Amino acid sequence: MLKNTFKSFDDYFSSQVETHLEKITLLWFCGLTALPLREASERLLRRQSLSLVCMGSRNGIEPHLFHDYGFARALGTDIAPTANIFPYMMQHDFHDFRPSYVAPFDVLYSNSFDHSYDFDRFLLASRSFLNDQSLIIFDYSPSDNLYVSPGSADCLAISMEEMIERVYSVLGYQLVCNASADPNIASGWKHYKDLRHLIFASPSVFKSNPSICDSLKSEYLDYSCCDKKFVDDYLRKVQLIANHHFSFYKAD
Fold first, then answer.
1. Which residues, at least 6 apart from 183, have a Cβ–Cβ distance to it below 8 Å?
2. Distance separating alpha carbons of residues 168 and 186, to the nearest angstrom
3. pLDDT over 70 at 216, yes or no
């Protein structure tokens, strides 16, 4: 594990907000995967009407897509003050525990863990947002997550093996799915060429459903829905969502 260090929390905060504003109109997450991830979550937790929180979701498009693709309740967090004006968002440092006025969630998703200055603290804070029977989903990309540039706001580099070990050691959550991105999706999104969808289940999920321990099941993610029509519909949907979200934002 490699990390950039900061002189103070204020230095870290300034770095994150500056990068946030530079990338505010960008979306790393491929919303096409929201439906397969929701279906996998329902199979693993053996119920529907699930809730989800996205850690470090910048402009709120991530949680909006998760909600549109079937999560009953979805919320995103970001450390930057602009989180206060985007739909589906709240301003929150993902190293801090869940505020008491926020109801806990069934699933936590993030592709922004590489912005953490303390990965174990991030994990513990993330756990505070979750119900007892819950899942953690990390989208991990070796080309993005194995390296860190000096001074970058993407301040953490971690191997997939170390991530899996830390999630289990710190939280007791075990890996149940390690699936590659669908190649048809990956061809259109550069970050997805080596992406892995890592799904971790809480100890109580294993206790209630021991069979999920039998083997790592990439088949938990079913991409059969992602045909050409689905992709075309998604592209129209994400443009409408982006137009709505950015109607609230005015650059300084």
1. none
2. 28
3. no
